């Protein structure tokens, strides 16, 4: 599992936003709203296991090149 830290979460958030700049086949505004909504939704997680799971999900999403949309 990914080691959760505030810095890791912020780095993932910034990387996802940067990745959104190069989108070609989807609406950038929709993508950015989706990313912000997901991070806000998970902002209140308390358990470390839940935080790490969501961080790992985000990293997989980033590494998968947004499901081939880039």
From TrEMBL:
A single Pfam family it belongs to is Complex1_LYR
Q: Where is the Complex 1 LYR protein domain?
A: 7-59
Check the record and name the InterPro entries matching this protein: Complex1_LYR_dom, Complex1_LYR_MIEF1-MP
Q: What is this protein called?
A: LYR motif-containing protein 4-like protein
Species of provenance? Amazona aestiva (Blue-fronted Amazon parrot)
